[in-house]
Amino acid sequence: MRPAAALAAATVTLAGFGVAALLAQRPDAFSASYDHPAIQYTTRPVHDRISRLNREIQDGKVHLAFDRTSGYLPALLKALDVPIESQVLVFSETSSQAPLINPRNPRAVFFSDAAAIGWVRGGSVLEIAAQDPTQGVIFYSLEQKSTERPQFKRDNTCLECHLTWDTLAVPGVLAISTFPMSDDKNAYANGFASDHRSPLAERWGGWYVTGRHGAQTHLGNLVGASAFERHTTEPGFRGNLADLTSLIDTRKYLQPRSDIVALMVLEHQSHMHNYITRLNYETRIMMETYGHIRYLNNQVNAFLRYLLFTEESPLSAPVGGDPQFVADFTAHALRDSKGRSLRDLDLQTRMFKHPCSFLIYSEAFDAMPTVMREHLLQRLYDILTGQDADPQFASLGTSDRQAILEILRETKSNLPDYWHPLAAKQ
Fold it and tell me: How many domains does the chain have?
């Protein structure tokens, strides 16, 4: 699912530059090689969902059926438990299959917490990004050709565009909001990465977007310079769409929407995974080099600010998406005795009711080196209990801190004893 190098070289993307160039622009990015002896990204065995699926197919435990219209896509979604309702559509030419992508033939992206699948109608491969618990995002392709035992091939060429300062200089994923260069050519070469910190008005250029957002604006559904110009004088132009039937032939896709809530979730979790990977890498190198992590305070603070949504751009009106996507997303919720979960969506003034990322439950978070995971949990506990009064977390209200603390106490496994004061006294 990598962007084509020439097209993703936006104002914030250094696709073809080395890590040294990245650091010249973003000193907070990861500074070492991803093949550092403590990392070995390209050579160390991986244990992501696709590598496991490869073995299951080879052993005959799983069979992927081939569909005449969309190849292995439906079978892969089922095998990875990725909901069809997670579909989001991007028409900027940001893929290894860029020549096939245009506003009439957008690329479909489907995702779960730990994997994303890119499908281009007429394309020769499926593009897959899978989060390995320790190594970050691993990229694969699957040839769209019927065979008895299809195999996913690892594709490190994706790092041409998936190793940038916007991924914090670790192998990762990102959502890019792009601008068109002209109406005559869909040559997208200008844009920026977006996540929950970005104002809605700056998001989703080059994407199709369905769902309600009231008087708030976004850059989705705008094809060509003339559409962008009209958007400046008519901000609601092509907003609040229930489906995409007026813009594309939706019969050629698994469903007729590119859901706004799905896009918001995808943006958040993409960069959250990048933060987890960076902190994992940094810790392994620091422990090997110095035997401690005292030099990682800035990285830890940045991680916690993102985890706790302290810099989230607020919503000025309620947002409403596909109810089925919301149902699929919340179906995996771990709930406390009051029925609360970190997957509960707010969508009134902010994204989640309880502002702490649901990826704190992920394999990748739990697989961080013990010294860092324990340090993060101690810092998080101190913030939530008010013992850490650092002003960078001041936006987190008392009621939010208490709710997050209570939810995690009941739903997060392997918390240190001090998280459970009654148990600690016994």
Answer: 2
Give domain status of residue 209, yes or no.
Answer: no
What mean pLDDT, rounded, does the chain reach?
A: 90
Residue type for position 377: L
CA pair distance 163, 178, nearest whole angstrom: 18
Let me know whether 23 and 146 are in one domain: yes
Q: Are residues 314 and 184 in the same domain?
A: no
Choose one of 182, 199, 216: the last residue of a domain.
199
Nearest to 14 by CA among 1, 29, 34: 29
Query: Does residue 27 sit in the same domain as residue 154?
Result: yes
Q: Which residues pair with 143 in a beta bridge?
A: 125
User: Is 337 a member of any domain?
Assistant: yes
Do residues 256 and 245 make contact, with C-beta atoms less than 8 angstroms apart? yes
Reduced to 3 states (helix: H, G, I; strand: E, B; else coil), residue 345 is: strand
Using CA atoms, how far apart are residues 47 and 359, in angstroms rounded to an integer? 18
Q: What is the dihedral of CA 34, 54, 129, 66, to 10 degrees?
A: 150
Residues 178 and 32 in one domain: yes
What's the token pair of residue 324? 């089925």
Provide the pLDDT for residue 11.
26
pLDDT greater than 80 at residue 305: yes
Structural domain of 45: 5-199
Tell me the per-residue pLDDT of 269-289, one tens digit each, with 9 for 90 and over.
Answer: 999 999 999 999 999 999 999
Whole-prediction pTM? 0.91
Token digits for 322?
Answer: 């596909």
Distance of CA 163 to the CA centre of its chain: 14
Contact 258, 88 (CB under 8 A): yes
Q: Can you tell me the mean pLDDT for 354-381?
A: 98
At 345, phi and psi to the nearest 5?
-85, 140
Three-state secondary structure call for residue 272: helix
Q: Which tokens go with 252?
A: 């050629």
